[in-house]
Amino acid sequence: MGNYEISLILVNHFVLAVAKIRALSLYARELDSTVFITQFGAVEYDHHHCSVVLTGSKIQCKAVSKSPTEEYFDVLQKNGLPFINWNDIVEDELDKEKKILYPNDEIKGFVERIKVMLGSMDEGEITVSAYDTAWVALVQDIDGNGRPEFPSSLEWIVENQLPNGSWGDHLIFSAHDRIISTLACVIALTSWNVHPGKCQKGLKFLNDNISKLEEENPEHMPIGFEVAFPSLIDIARKLDIQVPEDSPALKEIYARRNLKLTKIPKSLMHKVPTTLLHSLEGMPDLEWEKLLKLQCKDGSFLFSPSSTAFALMQTKDQKCLQYLTDAVTKFNGGVPNVYPVDLFEHIWVVDRLQRLGISRYFDSEIKDCVDYIYRYWTKDGICWAKNSNVQDIDDTAMGFRVLRMHGYKVTTDVFRQFEKDGKFVCFPGQTTQAVTGMFNLFRASQVLFPDEKILEDAKKFSYNYLKEKQSTNELLDKWIIAKDLPGEVEYALDVPWYASLPRLETRFYLEQYGGEDDVWIGKTLYR
Question: Where does the signal peptide begin and end (predicted)?
Answer without folding.
Answer: none
